[in-house]
Each structure stands twice: as structure tokens, then as C-alpha cells.
Amino acid sequence: MQLIVAIRRYRLGGQWAMILSGGLSTIAGASFILQAAGAHASLTNIAGYATLGGIFFQISAIRLHRHVIEAQ
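The structure assignment produced for this chain is given below.
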């Protein structure tokens, strides 16, 4: 859903971080499902995923905020 929303909002500007985050979420979700089905299921990869996702959201929020201020 995040990837779809970011693509739809692309023309607002500042959406590249959200698009990357949505793509990362899609890949990570598939990876987590495959890993959970394996013999050695683990949650250790979630920390890296959550950190990158948080960074992408922060960048997106800053860029969108600047865009809104410039538009006023």
C-alpha cells in the first residue's frame, strides 16, 4: 500500500524516499514470509528493515514539509 500511495503522490515531489521505502517493504515482506517458512525462522532482519523504513519516512516528511512551505 505504501508503494502504491507514493507512486500516486509522485507529482507532489519528495516521494522518492517513500517509493524506496515501499519497495523495501515489498521485498522485506516477501523475504520474511519465505524465512518464516524455513527451518531456522528468525526475527533478526526486522531491526534493519525498521531502521531503514524510519529513515525513509523521516526524509519523506522533511521533503514534503518543505514542499508545502514553498507552495504557500
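Interim note for the steering committee: DSSP finds three helices and no strands in the chain. The first helix runs from residue 2 to 8.
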